[in-house]
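Ticket #4471: structure output looks truncated?

Reporter: J.K.
Steps to reproduce: submitted the chain below (787 residues) through the standard prediction queue, then opened the result file.
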Amino acid sequence: MYNHPAFVARASALGIVLLVSLPGVLSARPVPGAARPKKALTGQQIYQQRCASCHGAKGEGSKQYAKALIGNQSTTQLAGFISRSMPPGPGKKCSAPEAKKVAAYLYDAFYSPVAQARNRPARVELAHLTVRQYRNVLTDLIGSFRQPAKPDDRHGLRGRYYKGRLGGGNGLVDRVDPEIRFDFGQAAPVPQVDDPYQFSMRWEGSVLAPDTGEYDFIVHTEHATRLWINDLNKPVIDAYVKSGSDTEYRASVYLVGGRSYPIRLDFLKAQQGVNNQEKLRATPPTKASISFEWKPPHRAAEVIPQRCLVPAAPPEVFVLSTPFPPDDRSMGYERATSISKEWDDATTEAAFEATGYVASHLRELTGVADDAPDRAAKLKEFCKQFVTRAFRRPLDPEQQHAFIDRQFQSAADPDLAVKRVLLLTLKSARFLYRELNTQEADGYDVASRLSFALWDSLPDAELLKAAAAGELSTREQIVRQAERMVGDPRSHSKLREFFLQWLKVDQFPDLAKDAKKYPDFNEKVASDLRTSLELTLEQGIWSDRSDYRELLLSDKVYLNGRLAKLYGVELPADAPFQPVALQPGERAGVLTHPYVLSSFAYLDASSPIHRGVMIIRSLLGRTLQPPPVAVAPLSPDLHPGLTTRERTILQTKAAACAGCHTRINPLGFTLEKFDAIGRLRTTENGKPIDTSGGYEGRDGKSVKFSGARELAAYLASSEESHDTFVEKLFHNLVKQPVRAFGPQALPDLERTFAANEFSIRKQVVETAIVTALGPVKKPAAVAAVQK
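Returned output as attached by the reporter:
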């Protein structure tokens, strides 16, 4: 009946499909001699057949290709790369349909955020203090026992002018001098001091060190001078008894960046050896001048600028001089997750150095006289405070006994007990490591996370007080503290370091240029350009809006008289640094800042490759594989008729280069209007500059650019650029993988960044809050990702 025509017609009308095998109607048996249909392979099957031999069955790598499969490419980009290049060698490549399948499999199995969280679950790594943190902590720990300086918004040094020698009641002028650079000639320094033969000055206040390292302080004068830096009991320059014809005096002092140091400079003009006033005034007065300069690390010497001087004098600052091995930066930020003998030896040496300093300043730091009857009890209380602050939380009874009571019981005298307590403390894991609390996080953990995220140092008195009072338990309370802390100079210093790392110029690149091609570019210009970039960044970060996009779109560049001449701007030769609209139609924020462009260039030519790599890694967060072979850049002399763009295309046209350079070159080409020192040009070798370029985003969409302004506009509005900035900022502040704080930490921070109109300062606060609230426990994080 099933093969009756009427039944078949009615079944068709009802939409019934007959799947049974019936004689004469439907048969599942193959027709004798007919070929079976070939079943299409899945992406996973293609991978196992054609890719696993190089990349490993689970993407773990092999002897042929050691790197594991991990990255941030989209399925479209993976498919394009696979169809062009895979499998390697002269054999048949994957077809476009096969490449799409493999790409989809790779993304789901290895590349997507969910896959990465599943394959390599992130966790907060046990980490000791980084070198920067260690120095900061010791400076602030010892400094916490000194009275802080009163706030002073003025800049410059307090100068007191005397008739005759220093001191006494003859100080006639008391003012703030913006910088110390005076040439009095044969006249008196000010009208109130009317004697051009004998007068003196004393300048006092503090100097802010922007970088950590060795500073050369330089005083130029024909007369007597004396200089104190940090330690006001011992001058670093003592030329108060003038002899010979020396007019330059130098002293080297190691300083920790982001801190202010007390300073005093004395000057005395006197006709030495002439006691008879009548004889003295029978001769013309000698000339008198003085200038106070410094040579910061990796910089040229300059008069200490007003922005680095404050008339208020802070207390002395402890500066650790013990050298440490550098921290690991292979992940793009400083990590302190490994221990070496060199690091352990350095912490021991540093503990002895710090203990020796405290012992030599014990009376000042404790306020206890050597002959005080209760000296032992007060020194014991000092030790308790020291250990509590070093451990960032109150001591329990066991710790009190081990670190303090036992040392005072066994030592021959209280001074020896203090040294034992300090050495024991500074070598303790509770001091050297960040998070050792195995219990639930409490207010002291929150305080420590906030201070290390924002200051790279330990909590201050206000944070510890809030922790003790239980006032760090809600988001609102944490926000209030974070907003207070972000205005501290220590936050300014930390953010400054981050942005220099972000632009890949934190290691002070060598800016030497071809003297024949750029005769006006010298060490002083390079130093000025560095200052210009730092001032440009500071203005962008700490302006009212603090808008990330403005860093990429502004045409304002800080120039002084020397830079203005080189870059074609009309300013007086001695003009101080000031914001200038430099080539508004061409410049695009930090992307085209002359220091950045000069850093990513050759001695005598621009470098689209170096500039493109910086953009793709730092601003777009993309990973690039090392080149398969080392290739020297083509010298302009070998192809004198080619432009830099044409030479770059010629150099990277090989198939082995195309995988990366199809992304790198088009980004670098957009900056070709700027030469090796970041100066604007319109032609090269008689040919018009071609600034066309493009980029294929992670979403697979391609965009074209014509010049730096269009590229900057894309970066300023691109989610890819925003997300990269948010993640890099987190890693720099927290020094832990962001995924360890839960699968939603990064997406939430990205949304907050956009909601706050891309405010850098607000994003810093939000990042600190995520840190303070703590990481999600591993089981919950894994469950959330798997769900």
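Triage note (M.O.): checked the attachment and the full token line is present. Residues 1-28, 776-787 have pLDDT under 50 and may be disordered.
Status: closed, working as intended.
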